[in-house]
Amino acid sequence: MWDRIVLLPVALIIGMVMGSFYNVLIYRLPRKISIIDPKRSFCPICGHQLAWKDNIPLISYLILKGRCRYCAAAISVRYPIVEMLTASLFTLAIYLTNNMIDLFSLWIFFSAAIVASAIDFEYMLIPDSAVIVTGIGGLLWSWHHGHITLSLITAAFAFGIFLLIYLLSKGGMGFGDVEYFGVLALFLTPFSAVMSVLIASVVALAYALPQVIVHKAGRKTRVPFGPFLAIGTTIAMLLNFHLFY
Ligand SMILES: [Zn+2]
């Protein structure tokens, strides 16, 4: 058993720092900019290299009132949101488990989900690296929970069924969704995988419906499915977790 009061500030700080790094990934991965070069972050508008004091997670955004110190361009609200979301989910994970391996696989899962979701919302694509990282987390999780064989079979079926939908829907679903759900299913068992898709579909529909109404039905509204698959998997995994383990 671990001391949650001690771990709480640790998870918050690690979450903030990692969230700040995920902002770099979210900006650079789809633009094919190297993650390590340039080493220092820069303003995407004026290109000015950022000093350490411009780069403190959340705090810099608040102090600078959401504007670049050098050109005063508005900084996307995505930056503080990603930092707070990462810190919140990292902290949540501490309350969901009291085991280091579980905590690590949950952090991996949440991290990849945040990066994949932000990129999917903007570019309608899920980077391969997020798929690979999620797969590693899923293997770790199901191995540690003693259902790795069942999860591998679940993943194979999840991939197969999504592949079929992908081929039949002719562009309605991206191949990234097929790959992503294939690895998400490594966290799941057959029952929770079905629950995950159901929850994902309901939440995606709730998200898309107002847009369809505003744009008046007929105009093709594309909805990124990755973020909703991640939400569905989180809920299904936790339900499964509390029911059966
Ligand atoms: Zn600037």
Which percent range fits the helix content? Answer: 55-70%
Mean pLDDT over all positions = 91
Structural class: mainly alpha
Number of strands: 0
Q: Major beta sheet, specifics?
A: none
Query: What is the H-and-E element order?
Result: HHHHHHHHH
Structural shape: globular
Tell me the count of domains.
2
Summed up, the helix count is 9
Which consecutive residue ranges, at least 5 long each, have pLDDT under 50?
A: none
Strand content: under 5%
State the end-to-end CA separation. Answer: 16 Å
* Gyration radius over CA: 19 Å
Bound molecules: zinc ion
How is this structure best described in words?
- It is a single chain.
- The protein has 2 domains: 1-96, no CATH class; 99-245, no CATH class.
- Helices cover 68% and strands 0% of the residues.
- The protein is built from 9 helices and no strands.
- It binds zinc ion.
- Residues 43, 45-46, 48, 68, 70-71, 73 line the site of zinc ion.
- The site of zinc ion has 8 residues, from loops.
